[in-house]
Amino acid sequence: MARPLIAVSAPREEVPTAFGTIDCTKLTAHYTDAVYAAGGQPVVFPVTAPPPPDLVARMDGLMLTGGGDLNPALYGEAPEESVYGVRDDRDAFEVALYQEALALGLPILAICRGLQLVNVLRGGSLLQEIEGEQNHWQENPSTEPSHDIAVAAGSALAEVFGRTARVNSYHHQSVKQLGNGLRVAATCGDVIEAVEATDADLVGVQWHPEHMAATDPRQLALFESFVKRAAANPRTMR
After folding, report:
1. Is the peptide bond before 50 cis (omega within 30 degrees of 0)?
2. Would you place residue 139 in the very low, low, confident or very high pLDDT band (cuts 50, 70, 90)?
3. Distance in angstroms (rounded) separating the CA atoms of residues 204 and 193
């Protein structure tokens, strides 16, 4: 059987090069490596305006990746001083990409910023800066965990991780108001660490499992579960 095709959103970023500072498509290989190791074929979707609907229709799943902050205007707020890396072109592109995938019924895995985007598009909001004793921006290597999460009983995530897991952490924002059609799938104290949709095949995680997938079988299993659902999509059987 052919590998299911997984659309992977790729941000743009200004990068110093021999040609000067240039707007580049920039995606860490951890994302594509994790999808491939899980049995999928990653297909990188760079920021364009808009994403080609005919190409999205050929995909079997969508992975929304991490990166800079969403424009707080998307959830009706002005930016606080801590907001960084806002790209309106990326916001608009991923909004359209998500809506296309949702309309097609594709399985969706949303990572870090991706979870936050999904929450906002479903009417939720974000804490622009997390407060509290737990540090959610770790200093140890990204391949290592920094804190525990409690996984909700009966969630799809519990089928992968059980009721607890150790995860890495690279976010200064988190879900404030939960979006419509979402349920909490994991927490760390008061911080929502994962969500699932009640009306779509969608899992969102706040940590970066792609950085741990090569060394932690349970993090790889998250991608394997996603790719397995994509392979079962009728589109894959074309």
Report:
1. yes
2. confident
3. 8
Q: Name the active-site residue from 112, 136, 188, 211.
A: 112
Domains of the chain by residue range = 5-237
CATH number at 5-237: 3.40.50.880
Q: Which of 163, 176, 9 is nearest to 98 (CA)?
A: 9
pTM over 0.85: yes
pLDDT band at 172 (very low <50, low <70, confident <90, very high): confident
SS3 readout for 85-152: CCCHHHHHHHHHHHHHHHHHCCCEEEECHHHHHHHHHCCCCEECCCCCCCCCECCCCCCCCCEEEEEC
Active site residue 210: yes
Q: Is 112 a catalytic residue?
A: yes
> How confident is the model over 48-102, as pLDDT tens digits?
888 888 999 999 999 999 999 999 999 999 999 999 999 999 999 999 999 999 9
Q: Which of 30, 210, 211, 224 is catalytic?
A: 210
Candidates 30, 136, 147, 208; catalytic one: 208
Active site residue 144: no
